[in-house]
Amino acid sequence: MSENVLDLSVHELRRKLLQGQVTAADMVDAALKRIEALDGAIGAFITVDAEGARVAAEKVDRMVTEAVRSGDEKALPPLAGIPVALKDNICTRGLRTTASSRILESFVPPYSATVVEKLQSAGAIVVGKTNLDEFAMGSTTESSAFHTTRNPWDLERVPGGSSGGSAAAVAAGMASAAVGTDTGGSVRLPSAFCGTVGLKPTYARVSRYGVISYGSSLDCVGPIAGNVLDCAIMLGVMAGLDPRDATSSPEPVPDYVESARSGLDGLQGVRIGVPAEFFAPGIASGVRETVERTLHRLEEAGAELVDVSLPHVEYSVAVYYLVATAEASSNLARYDGVRYGLRAEGKDDVGSTIAASRTEGFGQEVQRRILLGSHALSAGNYAAYFDKAMRVRTLIRRDIEAALEKCDCFVSPTSSTTAFKIGEVRDPLAMYLQDIYTIVANLAGVPAISVPCGLHQGLPVGFQVFGPMFGEPTLFRVAAAVEQASAGEMRRPKLEVM
Description:
The chain has a single domain (about 5-275, about 295-305, about 405-490), classed as Alpha-Beta Complex (Amidase signature (AS) enzymes), CATH 3.90.1300.10. The protein is about 40% helix and about 15% strand. It is built from 16 helices and 11 strands. The chain has helices at about 10-20, 25-40, 50-70, 115-120, 165-170, 190-195, 230-240, 255-260, 285-300, 315-330, 350-360, 365-375, 385-405, 430, 440-445, 470-485, and strands spanning about 45-50, 85, 125-130, 175-180, 195-200, 220-225, 270-275, 305-310, 410-415, 450-455, 460-465. Strand 2, helix 4 and strand 3 form a beta-alpha-beta unit. The radius of gyration is 22 Å and the shape is globular.
């Protein structure tokens, strides 16, 4: 792989920017050249905004010049000049936002999501919008209406999903960081498969205003980066109360960067829970060995391993696919071909137009989940399915609260396997089981982070850390230790730049 300025961390790029060794224009040019060279093979992006990125870079470079001239380097925002990619279910004013669906193929929002405004205010430069499973419903980025994204580590394999384009863009060096959404693991699973760091924050930690909804009680917006420190910097910019999102929290935003700098030295006295249910048979042997080896290194560094139990976690997949599909069927009812989006032609009345528009506009997996959710919410089934699922969801949350009384965090593999080949998993139920280690965080609303802990047969293995509500500092502390413990085993994917 040829030298790429974006191989440097966000922290390093900021330092070089202030020292005049690199400009924002240099960073944007590096990202755009990388996209041009690689994305034809990887397919991480749906829309690339080269013109907008270059205009933004000129503005940042003027800010840098003024900050250096005045001697007030702290006036320069934390992400000045950093090229970022946004999952294409996050609204961007004047820039197409499709959710990877035909029904929104031509939709150009008149406003930007809060998270976009925050990133741009912090100096970040949006280079483009990334591919995803349609409406974020999937675990491989194969259900996009436009194309399949490929894993930079092996172009025959999936990048995970639904934020597969965002993780692939960071892994391939086409952006320094990216933003994804996580409803059941959609930031963490692609991060595990692509060897990036991905965080699902506490529910309500990051505003969802301007993010196309899938499951409103589950959806979270989270950062994807090449290392733990960069992930912490991103969250510090993204987090905080938003009056436009009634569910966002007024909880103060702490200094995540300090926690992310700790490394193995910061593990003394940290109690790490090891749930028996997350280390049961079914994990690929190479994944288990890599995760357990990392746990042993954490224990050697001073962490205390504690046995904990999550007795109701066995029901989590069933609960999740009732709650998520029910909320999806309600959220996606707005896409009717009447107000905006795709409208079927040649129909004689409103009812047939709506039916045809939704049939033509939604892909197979989205239709499946709408039907499942509508069935669960119907008058004859509500008590038997949705209401019961919500009751069990409460039991799962209580299990997690009880476990966290015994430890500061608990861990698991992010996925039971490494990235599998495109087209290898076709059965919907088998696909749903890919989320088995991730969905509990969404059901309970707690934060969880995936950090690479090594390679198995040349592919990344993800190590997942869960914490209490608003416990992101603990997650970054442990994730930084995992990163340091695994440093000798990790590398970047080998990519040939044409």
